[in-house]
Fold this sequence. Notes:
Blueprint: H1 3-11, E1 15-16, E2 18-24, E3 27-33, E4 36-40, E5 45-51, H2 56-63, E6 65-70, H3 76-82, E7 94-97, E8 100-103, E9 108-120, E10 123-135, E11 141-144, E12 147-150, H4 151-159
Antiparallel strand pairs: 1-11, 2-3, 2-6, 4-5, 5-10, 6-9, 7-8, 9-10, 11-12
This protein binds flavin-adenine dinucleotide.
Amino acid sequence: MDDRTFRKAMGHFATGVTVITTALHGNVHGMTANAFMSLSMDPKLVVISVDEQAHMLEKIKESGKYAVNILSAEQQDLSMNFAGQRKTEEEIPFQTVKGVPVIEGALAQVTCEVAREYVEGDHTLFIGKVTDVHLEENEPLVFYKGKYRTLSAVEETVKN
Ligand code: FAD
């Protein structure tokens, strides 16, 4: 199986979109990620997967903390900014929760302390012990087959 086929198959899994944030020496760093899942209820754990090439890798290793910001349908520009696809023109509004920067207006802001890390292939899995959660009501941003979508657009596609 070639890389393209594997990538295409994985793209058939519809996901939400998150921006992972952390701060090191007072500087905030963010990275768009959809390799995120809830792992355990007791204790409350989540997991993210970070590419060995990503600047984020060393930043999380050093800070030992990160936040998962689940983006709303209105935050596609932030996803594109933190994936290095297109810079936003406005200043990005960060707040701080439990010493970790979070993105204002995200559907959920989940702050974590790194509990364990595992290098697997060309990615590192960071298991995060959840320290706090903040929620907002809004539509989620969806990523499917390499494109941004919204739930209402998906519902319309199914109807037609
Ligand atoms: P950089 O390339 O250094 O930064 C990314 C961008 O964010 C740059 O444009 C930078 O200017 C901007 N930025 C960073 N901090 C700030 C700040 N404080 N204020 C304003 N702008 C800032 N990669 C993974 O490893 N795991 C995944 O699960 C994953 N999922 C993805 C899902 C989607 C939908 C997309 C589009 C990409 C995904 N990627 C994933 C790829 C990843 O987002 C990019 O490769 C990213 O550029 C790598 O981040 P980096 O840490 O090297 O950051």
